[in-house]
Amino acid sequence: MTITPEKLWIAFGFAGQIIFGMRFVIQWIASERRKESYIPVFFWYLSLAGASILLTYAIHRRDPVFILGQTTGFIVYVRNIMLIYKKRWAKPEPPEENRQDAKTPR
Questions:
Q1: pTM over cut 0.90
Q2: Of residues 45, 65, 41, 43, the one with CA closest to residue 55
Q3: 3 phi, psi to nearest 5 deg
Q4: CA separation for the pair 54, 69 (Å, rounded)
């Protein structure tokens, strides 16, 4: 069996698809543990990694349908990660009774 560049590209594409598919397994396990629907942060990182690989593969194949689908997904995954970290880095609001602008009781 000869390893050709095209076979390497196909292996690369399959690797991306496996990574992308693993996000559903991770989400399923996390939801089962919590006994409710839950999307862990790792879901978004697997989405981003898988989409990056699949987008690279789609560009190599020059497939406009696949490129469009992976590009839009990529944007959504990046935005979700940004929102998660924006919330984590935000300075928490002090409790109502400790705020300087809280109304004083009459």
A1: no
A2: 65
A3: -90, 115
A4: 10
Checking if the pLDDT of 21 tops 80, the result is yes
- List pLDDT tens digits, range 58-85: 999 999 999 999 999 999 999 999 999 9
Domain ranges of the chain: 5-89
CB atoms near residue 55 (< 10 Å): 19
Task: Give the DSSP per-residue string, 21-83.
Answer: HHHHHHHHHHHHHHTS----HHHHHHHHHHHHHHHHHHHHHT-HHHHHHHHHHHHHHHHHHHH
Residue at 63: amino acid letter:
D
Count other Cβ atoms within 10 Å, centred on residue 10. Answer: 13
Q: Which two tokens stand for residue 10?
A: 């196909």
